[in-house]
Amino acid sequence: MNPRDAQPEVRATPAVEPADARVRRPLFRKYFLALFAAVVLPLLASGAIEAWFGYRDQRVLLDQRLRLEAQAAASKIQDFLDGIRDQMQWAVQLPWTDGGDERHRFDALRVLRQVPAIVDLALVDGAGKERLKISRVGRDVIGSGLDRAADPAVAGARSARVWHGPVRLNRGSEPYMTLAVAGNRAAVGVAVADINLKLIWDVISAIRVGETGAAFVVDRNGRLVAHPNISLVLRGADDETSARLKALQAAVQSPGGGSITTRNIEGRTVLMAMAPIAGAQWMVFAEQPAAEAYAPISAALWRTGILVLAGAFFATLLAFALARRMSGPIRVLERGVASIGAGQFDHRIRIATGDELERLAARINAMAKELALSQERSERIGRLKRFLSPQVAELVESAGKEDLLGAQKADVVVVFCDLRGFTAFSAKAEPEEIMRVLGEYYDALGAIIMRYAATLTHFSGDGLMVLLNAPVPSPDDPALRAVRMARDMQNAVQGLIAAWAAQGHRLGFGVGLARGIATVGRIGYEGRHDYTAIGRVANLASRLCSAAEDRQILVDQAVATAVSGEIALDAAGTRELKGFGDSVAVYAIAQGRAEPSAALPGPESAR
Amino acid sequence: MRRRTLIALLAAGASPAALRAQSAKKAIVGFVSWWPPEMASHLEALRGGMRDLGYAEGRDIEFDGHFTSGNRERTQELVQWLVRRNVDVLVVSTTPVAHIAKKATSRIPIVMAPVADPLATGLIASISRPGGNVTGLTSFGPELGDKRLELLREMKQGFRTLAFLGSSADPNGATYFRELQSAAGRQGVRIVAEFVNGPAGIEARIFDGFRKQGAEAVFIQPIFFGHHGKIIPLAVAAGLAVVGQYAQFAEAGGLLAFGFDDLALMRRAAYYVDMILKGASPASLPVEQPTKYLLVINATTARRFGWSIPETLSIRADRIIE
User: Fold this and answer.
1) Phi/psi of residue B261, each to 5°?
2) Which residues of B touch A173 (CB under 8 A)?
3) CB spacing of B2 vs A302 below 8 angstroms
4) Global pTM?
5) Nearest residue to A208 via CA among A65, A354, A404, A19
6) Is the pLDDT of residue B116 over 60?
7) ipTM given for this complex
């Protein structure tokens, strides 16, 4: 039977649906996780390492650079003060005489002209008397003779050549400082200048630390002297700002002069370093916005972030592609296996991935082919077993010798047997009882027929016909085999008959055997074949069976000849058998006598 | 590349472009000067200062400038108009305008550019922390009286009498006069003074009066800046040497000017406008005092009136006009 014709609907509706929705952990997710881990984790690790070492290197670099910037800024501020000091030196060149004030006045005026930051310039002679005071906005005072020997500016300059006063606020806003310079001899006296420190703004605002960083100056009392944001300076004495500046100063000094990250006075997070100005005892702070200072590290982090994103994207793509590559063929396999499982053995899975999946598909295809063959075979064997004993059926099937079943002439032994008194029994017994008796009867006979590998041609009611030496030749002499089988049958059924008798059923059993050439082969129609033997020998065996009495096994001349010497026979004379005339020599298998018997007695002796 | 972007972003935090993005509107700067339209260069200097700070006129900023020639009513109307217009900053020149503006609004920031003595007239609480909505630049011009007298005395031996032309419309008139008087007392000089209510009152009669009282020079209160083209010929005609605060007085035929660079002050006012537009409170923006002083002497005028220019003066002078 062709499965294609039997189940055409299997192809249209596969028994198993594609099971994506029900998959607990899809391939895509597994691949994605694996690839993500493979791509992104190293990226993250390298990014973290880069950021960490980048930060450390950058920190060291920044520290050095910021300190240099602070020193550079400090030296610029120092230059500003030194420039004023150098100009002031011109006013302390000439010794004082009683009337030589005019020369000094010109010197002082020149200094004032040269240095816009000087608001007032006083000249004190060697004796500490103020001889001259030139002012930019106020009145000049000439020859006041004021004794300024005790003035700390004068005293300081006399002892150290240069004296820097503390920063003070003009009108509570502008930072001013007194700077005193002594000449190289005591006689030339001292120049004392009031300096408007607002003018440092030109210097400080020109200083750039990095790209947007700046510098600012704080005096020894924590007061802002100079800052690019001039308003912060002009805000003057502000306890809050001063406290903040002092805290900054302390913070920067604590790590041994290194730079620190902190909030500056404007509240921005900056990196800050400091350098001192010795003479004025000021501090110059250089600051750079942290965001700018750490920009390279930020850039590295950005890079890593983007790489991680790209990696994740790549992993997704790859996972998707791989999962598709896998799940596509797997789905094809799944559908194929479902179809094959549903009995569609001619289904072929087509996968051309060139990998293990293709091999698996080929295996499954081969399996389907084998399944188809084996199903066909088992169907054939099933059919053969209807008339052949299982081993013969297997033999015929496996050897592919079904042509054995073809029509031919063969030397066969036909065995007929039936029960005596069955018609009477069946007429009065209950159907269940009849079927039980028949069941016991056939169980017993079937086992024996199988044991002797005989071919059952047909049975009807209580009679059955068995063939030996066809379609497969008997391994030993068929006649001898048939007689032995018949004797076993008789013994077995007699046992049953004794039991049935105990149940009140009077039954007997007779067997007839004949040997000869018969036409053997399959008869029947599509799906319902039997194997049978047609010929004189079959009829003879039937007649002999009919002629046999209970317990009796009757054989014809051919059988008797074949078994003589092996089996004890009793000549039963000639019988008149329908269709065979009246001179058929019949022998009965001797009962209760041991084998081997004597020579086959001739029919004559029975006569 | 990335770093640059980052820095550009950081830098943008302080640029007018970012300001524009934040407020998404043009800033309007009102400008009112008591001085006459002849001083239009002041507004130009302010504009230049804003340009230097990165503002583009028409895109980021708009100016609404007015010169009132000392007309109080007109000044009040203009200030009120600008307050109603809700300008972002009000820049005012001279003390009278500052007072009018302060009276008109306590909300709109006012930038003085400049005002002679904001402390004396109560415009601000202190130089370092103005405390209200007024901040800006001060000249402390009256305090230069001593120096001006000293310079005049150096130029003429036996200089005796100085005339003062003040404004009765400006509270600083009294401040100038007081400072000048105390300086005159210290230096043994006599002061004769006349106060007029606005430049319209300046007539030849006044200078003749000064001359008759023995004055050799006249100091013109800076409030009359811009009218020097009218004043100086009148004074010269009366035989008086003119002393002023701004260089223009010397340039226009006066004897000397000692004070400040007015254009530099106006340009500096842009700093305050910028800070205020960026959100700084005028209350905590310290008032700036002048750092640079300017002495300009007109040698021609000096010769004409018989004034000498001694070497001590020529060393001091920033400019001597021959």
Assistant:
1) -85, 105
2) 126-128, 286-287, 289
3) yes
4) 0.67
5) A65
6) yes
7) 0.87
| Dihedral (CA of B233, B235, B239, B240) sign | negative
| Per-residue model confidence as pLDDT tens digits over A392-442 | 677 677 666 666 777 888 899 999 999 999 988 988 889 999 999 999 999
Strand order across the A130-135 sheet: A141-142, A130-135, A118-124, A190-196, A174-182, A162-170
Q: Is B278 on the interface with A (CB under 8 A)?
A: no
φ and ψ of A451, to 5 deg: -60, -40
Q: B100 in contact with A at a CB cutoff of 8 Å?
A: no
- Closest partner residue to A105 (CB to CB) among B10, B286, B312 is B312
* Euclidean distance between CA atoms B262 and B144, whole angstroms: 15
Chain B residues with CB under 8 Å of A139 CB are: 146-147, 150, 183, 186-187
Per the DSSP assignment, residues forming a β-bridge with A532 are A521
Percent of chain A with pLDDT over 90: 30
Q: How far apart are CA A407 and CA A531, in angstroms?
A: 10
CA-based nearest residue in chain A for residue B127: A173
| Nearest residue to B32 via CA among B88, B85, B110 | B110
pLDDT at A28: 77
Beta bridge partners of A132: A123, A142
Question: Residue A136 and residue A152: Cα distance in Å, rounded?
Answer: 23
- Please report the number of interchain residue pairs, chain A to chain B, with beta-carbon separation below 8 angstroms: 90
Q: How far apart are CA B223 and CA A130, in angstroms?
A: 39
The share of chain A scoring above pLDDT 70, in percent, equals: 90
The SS3 assignment for B108 reads coil
Contact A139 B284 (CB under 8 A): no
DSSP-assigned states of every residue in A202-264: HHHTT--BTTTBEEEEE-TTS-EEE-SSHHHHHT---HHHHHHHHHHHHHHHTTTT--EEEE-
Residue A296 has pLDDT above 70, yes or no: yes
Q: Calculate the CA B267 to chain-centre distance.
A: 12
Closest-CA residue of B relative to A297 is B3
Our CA angle for B180, B182, B186, nearest 5°, is: 110
Is the pLDDT score of A528 beyond 80?
Answer: no
Mean pLDDT of B175-202: 92
The Cα of A152 is separated from the nearest Cα of chain B by a number of Å equal to 26
C-alpha to C-alpha distance for B189 and B214, rounded to whole angstroms: 12
Burial B265-297 (b: 16+ CB within 10 A, else e): bbbbbbbbbbbbbeebebeebbbbbbbebbbbb
- The string of DSSP letters for A349-363 reads -----SSHHHHHHHH
Cβ–Cβ gap A235/B284 under 8 Å:
yes
pLDDT in tens, A155-198: 999 999 999 999 998 888 899 999 999 988 888 899 999 999 99
Find out whether A68 and A215 touch, Cβ atoms under 8 Å. Answer: no
| pLDDT higher than threshold 60 for residue B304 | yes
Task: Compare CB distances from A295 to B3, B143, B287 and report the shortest one's residue.
Answer: B3
Q: Which residue of B has its CA nearest to A213?
A: B11
